[in-house]
Amino acid sequence: MSGAFSAIGAFWTYVSTLLDPFCGPVGLFTLFGNGTLVTCGDTGWGDEIAFGVKVTISLALATLPVGLLIGFLIALAAQSEEKSLRLAAGVYTTIFRGLPELLTLFIVYYGIQMLLQSVAAYVGITGPVEINAFVAGMIALSVVFSSYSSEVLLSAFKAIPKGQYEAGHALGLSRGRTMVLVIIPQLVRIALPGMTNLWVILLKDTSYVSIIGLADIIRQTGIAARVSKEAFFFYSIACLLYLILALLSSIGIGFIDRWSRKSEASR
């Protein structure tokens, strides 16, 4: 059994290396960076920068669903008939839209560590408590992203006529099924332009996590710039990578936009 798992692991490693968009056989750095400072391997910084890109993409993709879920719940609370829920939603969005993203990151990273250390000391556990930088970055970016996405979703909710809810009720659908089958498809189409902007902002905001030691694009290119004394070259590489991610995101969102408009009547 262990031999089978080893074989699967070796095969997966081979496939990952083969399909690596940066250091694979037809990777970006392999084709255009050979013999330069971004050569993959021991002679260049290609592997380190490629790892930073993967961390940046992983952090953004991990943050997106969490931020969207919290933002969706905040948007529901903001239009609730319960006054306390509306007040709580307003306080939440005001705080996290007003605070700088970097300050929010520091509060989450250091604040959670202090909280966990206090709890550990209370139960008799001594020693330092550290929180994973990736988790801290995801939490901080999620609350910031959710505070902005909730406003976009709230505007989209208001753009959907109340007759849509009544139509779902007339068809015998429960409130939950009406939301899933009738409201959310329209919500996606209406909110998509605003969410596109927020996704691009989220990609850029991932650069803040380099401050707490996470090996993203900015941290990896920054280390390479300091060691090689070629700051302009490596920060230009970072600019190019962020622009490529933004371009690929625009293409992907274009597919989602076309899918969301399939239900529209032809004009």
From TrEMBL:
CDD domains noted in UniProt: TM_PBP2
Cellular localisation: Cell inner membrane; Cell membrane
Q: How does it sit in the membrane?
A: Multi-pass membrane protein
What residue ranges are annotated as transmembrane?
55-78, 178-202, 232-256
**Principal location listed in the UniProt entry:** membrane
Q: PROSITE patterns attached here?
A: ABC_TM1
Q: Which domain of life is it from?
A: Bacteria
SUPFAM superfamilies documented for this protein: MetI-like (SSF161098)
Do you know which Pfam families this protein is assigned to?
Answer: BPD_transp_1
Keywords from UniProt, A to Z, are: Cell inner membrane, Cell membrane, Membrane, Transmembrane, Transmembrane helix, Transport
Locate the ABC transmembrane type-1 domain: which residues?
53-253
Can the keyword Cell membrane be found in this entry's annotation? Answer: yes
InterPro entries reported in the protein's UniProt record: AA_ABC_transptr_permease_3TM (IPR010065), ABC_transp_permease_HisMQ (IPR051613), MetI-like (IPR000515), MetI-like_sf (IPR035906)
Asked if the Swiss-Prot or TrEMBL record annotates the protein with the keyword Transport, the reply is yes
Q: What family does the Swiss-Prot or TrEMBL record give for this protein?
A: Belongs to the binding-protein-dependent transport system permease family. HisMQ subfamily.
Q: What is this protein called?
A: ABC transporter permease
